[in-house]
Specification:
single chain, mainly alpha
């Protein structure tokens, strides 16, 4: 009986801790939404409130009037879609090779996946900038997409390797008995079974590119080519003063795609992460 009570108390404590963590995560977004709908008088109030007393859409209208948000969103969408597509196309056969072979090449590839995650953005930006400059890819979306693909490949491989290892080898051996080669087996047998992992990986790559700021800030100089996270900084004045209402409205709109995507495919994303952590 005592053990049962202890178990219930421990479970209740876990739920309370989880609830506190969710509140901690949700607080910035809820405050952002509240700020986006507040009129200027409430934004400058010494006693802020959670719920706007006089909600308004003026901040959204002003945000679109002050900055080219639609054009920036189009640039972000193009870069994110291209990066996700290219990353998945490259990562799928690489993950298959890493999962199905045992040798120095697979070991080296696994080491690259691990080591590449240890490099901070600031450490690689100067050599990266010089390389792209020599290739005449500075201030181009092609150069930015190239950076996003390279940066997202390690995580894409980590996820897809786990999915490949979860596919029974017997299916591939049966295809080989029927005369199918490696490429045919990957396309006709393995790839359809990898569909959930490919979708989850592509969406992670998309969201990463959609929200990325540092590389876009450094590599894109022309206003017409800047992405949405960079354009959001234009709501800040020269001395750091923020146009708080329009900034909150624009940031809220920029956050919506990520939230919608995560809400729609959260089960596949969780499955991809768990599969990627499985060792064969």
């Amino acid at each position: 009986m005592t053990a049962l009570r202890t178990g219930r108390s421990a479970r209740a404590g876990q739920y309370v801790a989880l609830l506190c963590y969710l509140v901690f995560l949700a607080f910035p977004f809820l405050w952002l939404v509240s700020t986006a709908f507040k009129p200027p008088r409430e934004l400058g109030s010494l006693h802020p409130t959670w719920i706007p007393e006089n909600p308004t859409l003026e901040n959204f209208s002003q945000a679109f009037d002050e900055q080219p948000l639609l054009r920036a969103a189009g640039n972000s969408l193009l870069a994110a879609l291209a990066a996700a597509f290219v990353a998945v196309v490259i990562a799928t056969p690489m993950a298959y090779a890493m999962a199905r072979t045992r040798g120095k090449l697979a070991t080296a590839a696994t080491g690259w996946v691990v080591v590449s995650q240890a490099f901070p953005f600031v450490l690689v930006i100067i050599p990266l900038f010089l390389v792209l400059k020599n290739l005449h890819l500075i201030n181009t979306l092609v150069g930015l997409v190239t950076v996003y693909v390279v940066w997202s490949l390690p995580f894409a491989l980590w996820m897809l390797v786990g999915y490949v290892r979860a596919v029974p080898r017997e299916l591939e051996e049966a295809a080989a008995v029927d005369g199918a080669g490696r490429v045919r087996t990957l396309v006709s047998v393995t790839a359809p079974l990898l569909a959930p992992g490919i979708v989850a990986t592509a969406l992670f790559a998309f969201i990463t590119a959609w929200n990325e700021f540092f590389f876009a800030l450094v590599l894109l100089k022309t206003p017409e080519k800047q992405t949405l996270p960079v354009v959001l900084t234009h709501f800040l004045g020269a001395e750091g003063a923020a146009d708080l209402g329009p900034l909150a409205a624009a940031a809220f709109l920029a956050t919506l795609p990520s939230l919608v995507i995560f809400a729609v495919i959260q089960k596949r994303i969780t499955g991809g992460m768990l599969a990627g952590a499985v060792k064969s």
